[in-house]
Amino acid sequence: MQGRNNRAIPYSDAELSWIEVNQTGISRKELATKFNAKFKRELSGDNLGALCKRKKWANGLDTVFKKGQESWNKGTKGLTGRNRTSFKKGQMPHNHKPVGHEYKNTQGYIMIKVAEPRKFELKHRHLWQQANGKIPARHVIRFLDNDRSNCSLENLICVPVEVNGKVNHRDERFADDVDINKAVLLTETLNHHVNNRAR
C-alpha cells in the first residue's frame, strides 16, 4: 500500500483485523474517520479504500445508479456549477460573428459566413452560385483579374478544371489584364469542348 510519498503505509495485525470487520456497510470516508479515532492515525478514505480493494474486502454498499435517480451534478455543465459568468440560454459569445461576416484565409481567398453556427464558404463560389446555380462538376470559378479579393460577379468566370490548369501555366505578363484573360479562358474553354466532342 503506497502513501503520498510513495512509501508503503504500514498496518498492524490488529488494525487490519479491525478494518476487515468494520468496513462492511459504511463508506470509506466514514471508515477512515472511525479508524483514525480508534488508532490515532491520519489516513484518508482513499487510503483505506485502496487497502480494501487490494484485500478484496467489499463494503456491500450499492453505488450503482438506480433508474430515475438524479446524479449529484444534475443541472451543471463541465466541472463546476452555474455561476454569474456562465452562458445563459440564447446568449452569444463575445467572439460570435454574424451571417455575412468575412475574413481572408491564408491563401488570400475571402471567406463569408453563410449560416449559423459556423458555416463559412469561399465568397467567390458562394456569390457565383447565388447568381448562376450549382457549379458544374469538374469546374472551378476563376478571377478574371487574378485578384482573389475581387469577388464581384463581373470578375468571375466558370471554367473546366482542365482549362484552369492549362491557363495557370501561360505567360504571366498578361496576368492582370481582364480582357486578355477572359479571351484566353473563353477560347480555351471552347477548344476543350470541341476536343471532347470530337473524341
Write up this protein:
The protein is α+β, with helices and mostly antiparallel strands. The chain is 36% helix and 12% strand. It has helices spanning 13-22, 28-39, 45-55, 123-132, 161-167, 178-198, and strands at residues 102-104, 110-115, 119-122, 139-143, 156-160. β1 (102-104) and β2 form a beta hairpin. The model has no long low-confidence stretch (mean pLDDT 85).
Give a concise summary:
This protein is an alpha+beta fold. The protein has helices at residues 13-22, 28-39, 45-55, 123-132, 161-167, 178-198, and strands at residues 102-104, 110-115, 119-122, 139-143, 156-160.
Sheet with the most strands, sense and barrel status: 3 strands, antiparallel
Unreliable segments of 5+ consecutive residues: none
Biggest sheet strand order reads: 1-2-3
How helical, in percent, are the residues? 25-40%
Distance between the termini: 81 Å
SSE string: HHHEEEHEEHH
Give the number of helices.
6
Radius of gyration of CA atoms, rounded to a whole number: 36 Å
Shape: rod-shaped
- Strand content is 5-15%
Give the mean pLDDT: 85
Q: Which class do the helix and strand fractions yield?
A: alpha+beta
What is the number of E strands? 5
